[in-house]
Write the structure tokens for this entry.
Amino acid sequence: MPYELSPDASKEGEDLYAYLPRSQVESSIDRLNLMGQELGIHFNNKNKKFNTRRAHLAGYYAKDQGLYESFSKKVFEAYFVDGVNIAQEDILSKIADEAGLNSSDMNNLINSGAYTERLFADFEIADRNTINVVPTFIAGEDVRFSGIVAYKDFKKIFDGL
């Protein structure tokens, strides 16, 4: 389910270095790149944060169309690898089109507020579960972990359920 770390982030994007020490940001990116290396993923978005609300709303549309997996992969690649601003309607529309979605229909539904209630309902669930870090994984009643986890460790946790 979606979760906005920075719901007040501007649509133009913001510099992470204004909020966190440069060393902390760079250390996190280095760790992500180390873990992504075996999967051929390189994180290029080093210090930008963008408002993700529209992308989350578009995710509901993609789910309803049965194309969430394809769409979400393209959004993550655009944000983390390409470093593009996914808050911009034209950029998100291009991503949606590439994922096989009808971006015109998607934008009309987003702009009408069709998914807003679902988004806020998910935020309430996150709040009730004291989720404030992404990613956070909850499986059943007992297993919960947050943050960046190596795939082998992630797999071990879920294989043990």
